[in-house]
Amino acid sequence: MKIDTSHFASEGARWTKEVLEPAVASSTNVCEVLRYLGIEEVGGHHTHISRRIRALGIDTSHFTGKSRTRRATRRRSDAGLLVEMPIAGARRVPSSRLKTAMLARGATDECALCGTGPNWRGGTIPLEIDHIDGNWRNNRMENLRILCPNCHSVTDSYRGRAKRARSARAGVRR
């Protein structure tokens, strides 16, 4: 005995040619098509919509192939890293980039407190970047220093100590 399901609505959205053509026509890449359709820009959606566009034979010759993200792809220069204070929602600048920028601006590749260089006891040690005021967003040259792991571990700003100290002064318990 077979049950008739022809009257059931299909699950999910139907991406027909009528729906996709205007979205593709007003976009320059698949991510813009997703935004036009109000779909989250994740890999599965990108792949599915790309396949539907291809299967329906919709013309994409005007697609530019530019970046799939909304963010500007301009990488800040080394000097720009040490001058600009990132906006509140910005990501942390990797310490390797900060160190490269500092060395390019004349900092020495040794601990600012004890003078230890990158070579120690026959091996190399990773010199670390210390934000003197404890604020990782403050990447100005005068707020940064290169320290060896030993000296860095005893600073007031090491691994969030400055943040915990501010919270304690404000009466916040963690």
Automatic annotation (TrEMBL):
Keywords: Endonuclease, Hydrolase, Nuclease. The keyword Nuclease applies. Residues 97-153 form the HNH nuclease domain. One of its GO terms (molecular function) is endonuclease activity. CDD domains: HNHc. This is HNH endonuclease.
